[in-house]
Here is the input.
Amino acid sequence: MIAARHFEPYVEFAKKAFAREATYRLEVLTEVGSLVLRVYILRSLWTALYAQNLAPIGLPLHGMITYATVALLMSLILEVDGTRLIREKIREGSIATDLMKPISLPTYFFSDGVGQTLLHALLVVPSLACALLLVHIDVPPPATLAVFALSFLLGYCVNFFINFLMNAIAFWTLETFAIQMIVRWVSDLLSGQIIPLTFFPGVLGRLVFGLPFAAVYSTPLLIYVGIIPRTAWMPSLEIQCGWLLAFAGLSHLVWRAASRRVVIQGG
Here is the structure.
């Protein structure tokens, strides 16, 4: 009962974030339309590439279209960044008073992101319905779907802590746009969001699979399309858990250091 009361404020924060995001109806519709357009473009692109025998190992064209479509649906959720509030609050100067409130600010940022994520998760349904008018995606067995969901959840948490660390840098620099753009470009290429990491050969392939970005998109996606077999599910999930613990620990240390160094810009 005490634990439940402890989390009640964060549930309310999540609800408010959901309501706030839901007010931007035009942006919501635009996002769905944009995703459907990207599905069509990617289907045409991969069809042309496969016609030129440029295909990832062990993934037929239909599987590749499924991979690309599911990756786009995942991006609706994973591209939500509740931790951007850190940078905004530092610029406003409100971070000083927020640190005095009887709440955990990192948990507040997480709950705000969850609220936004829940709305974007609802967008997956109409987006998927529209996408199915253009492509037909494979649906794996229930056991695979369950492991995919677990892997996706782990990837979501890893992604949160990566964003958290990037925005926490604002305590020292006040501006994080440049580093966020660099990390975003690297992540888009090396996370498996755009192309499967099986495209990378030899040593380069082993290197990109060993980076934390693979834990965000590549692992759940390769589980979904069957490239990662049942026998490799547990090792893959353990690697994701390892990255999650590493980034959570690093985020804890950075936040402790940052909260002692409050730089107020503006108000």
Q: What stands out?
A: The CA atoms of residues 89 and 95 lie 5 Å apart. The longest helix spans residues 25-51. The radius of gyration is 20 Å. Residues 263-267 have pLDDT under 50 and may be disordered.
